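User: Could you go from structure to sequence for me? I need the amino acid at each position, not a summary. Structure tokens:
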């Protein structure tokens, strides 16, 4: 039994400390995209309607620490599928939620990550499909018709923000423990091989 004690302790020290803390919530923001709102600067993939479909932002939020922001964008009212959103943090595009067919059963939900500094930052979102009102959706349709109508829904969306700490840099004591565990594991392996 004693011969398994040292490698067991070594393995435990290798495994311990690997799990990260749960993300820190910043807030959930119900927003409305409108054709009367300008699209955020840098919006791409816009349709014939031009630079419209914004939420009236950018909006300011406070990051509690320097770390990785997690931004989730999803429809708030699931009545008509087809909206596709472009997400922005501090004026930089993070990309689009997945393209989904117009009038289908799937809703476009996307999660984005980006580094942020502690303190005030901004987020913004553009509903790309609102720039296609009166024209075919670029993502196709689940129906026989494909025209985005003027009362297109859902233009109400939820933006959920949370933040993770950056990956921890091991302190010298942790590195020493790791090295000791590695040496112990190697010694055990050589001893076992010699038997």
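Assistant: Here is the amino acid at each position, in order:
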């Amino acid at each position: 039994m004693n011969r398994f004690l040292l490698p067991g302790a070594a393995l435990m020290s290798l495994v311990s400390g690997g799990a990260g803390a749960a993300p820190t919530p910043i807030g959930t923001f119900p927003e409305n995209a409108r054709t009367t709102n300008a699209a955020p600067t840098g919006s791409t993939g816009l349709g014939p309607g031009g630079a419209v479909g914004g939420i009236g932002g950018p909006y300011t939020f406070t990051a509690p620490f320097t770390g990785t922001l997690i931004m989730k964008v999803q429809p708030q009212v699931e009545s008509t599928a087809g909206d596709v959103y472009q997400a922005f943090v501090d004026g930089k595009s993070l990309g689009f939620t997945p393209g989904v067919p117009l009038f289908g059963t799937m809703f476009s939900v996307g999660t984005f990550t980006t580094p942020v500094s502690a303190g005030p930052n901004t987020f913004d979102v553009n509903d790309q499909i609102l720039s296609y009102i009166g024209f075919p959706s670029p993502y196709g349709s689940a129906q026989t018709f494909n025209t985005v109508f003027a009362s297109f829904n859902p233009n109400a969306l939820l933006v959920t923000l949370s933040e993770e700490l950056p990956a921890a840099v091991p302190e010298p004591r942790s590195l020493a423990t790791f090295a000791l565990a590695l040496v112990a594991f190697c010694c055990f392996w050589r001893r076992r091989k010699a038997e």
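One structural detail worth keeping in mind: Residues 24-163 form a domain with the Jelly Rolls fold (CATH 2.60.120.380).
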